[in-house]
Amino acid sequence: MISLFQLMSIDLDAPDHTTLSRRSSVLDISIEKTLKSNESITIAVDSTGLKIFGSGEWCENRHGLRKRRQWRKLHITLNTSTLEVVEATLTENSVGDSTEAKNHLQVIENEIDEMLADGAYDCQEISNNIEEAGGLVTIPPPINAVVSKNFSTTPTQRDEHVTYINQNGRPAWEMKNHYSRRLLAENFMGRFKGIIGSKMRSRNIASQKVEAMIGCSILNRMIVLGTPTKPAKAA
User: Fold this and answer.
1) Can you tell me the mean pLDDT for 196-225?
2) Is residue 232 part of a domain?
3) What's the mean per-residue pLDDT of the chain?
4) Can you give the pTM of this predicted structure?
5) Does residue 116 sit within a domain?
6) In degrees, to the nearest 5, what angle opens at C-alpha 192 toward C-alphas 188 and 194?
7) Residue-wise pLDDT tens digits, 81-129
8) Sign of CA dihedral 124, 126, 131, 132
9) Quick check: 10 pLDDT over 70?
10) Residue 143 vs residues 33, 140, 157, 175, 184: alpha-carbon distances, Å
11) Is residue 3 part of a domain?
């Protein structure tokens, strides 16, 4: 089959995948989103593992040798109203969820009305930051959680969560706080792995970070183009 470039008599060199991957590490990619700086948002945070291929993968697949698998961790902060990612980072798998969530909160300039997350994000510093700004923290405390020493005088939101769960149970707490909204972040991770992929194609972490940001921007663009809007009211 004759290519278009051959028909046009153009001698065009195309870089290979290795060259593209190496050069991509210096790209400055910011996530494309429609969020305005003066908007207040409700966020849901989550993380997931993305597999990377090591040098011994071929031997492992060919000969059945066991080798410790390597992963990267994608952390996202999702705007629950628009389903767009407002902040994302790719880290080593050793970085804790709550640690990276604190970094996201420092970068996000918008006012946060509420933060939804699973128990891995149960962190006093996160709760204090959100509460001091007047927002809600909807994070389930662990099963052995106890109220703070100042509960009788100045109870925190976490104290109220602990008390309500002890009195009414976790399912009742989830229904009261509409905790199922947190699943929007998990749904995004499912879209990322289903559309972008669950494996990193780049070899070094700098290029992998760029790859992850491009993937998040692609999904944000798809949300904007594919989400139906309400028709304008007739005059």
Assistant:
1) 90
2) no
3) 85
4) 0.81
5) yes
6) 110
7) 999 999 999 999 899 999 999 999 999 988 999 999 999 999 889 998 8
8) positive
9) no
10) 37, 9, 16, 17, 24
11) no
Range(s) of the domain holding residue 76: 43-223
Q: pLDDT over 90 for what percent of the chain?
A: 54
Residues forming beta bridges with residue 42, ordered by sequence position: 114
Q: Is the residue at 68 inside a domain? A: yes
Total of domains in the chain: 1
190: exposed, middle or buried (Cβ count in 10 Å: 0-12, 13-18, 19+): exposed
Residue whose structure tokens are 């420092």: 106
The residues that bridge with 71 in the sheet, in sequence order, are: 51
The pLDDT value given to residue 183: 95
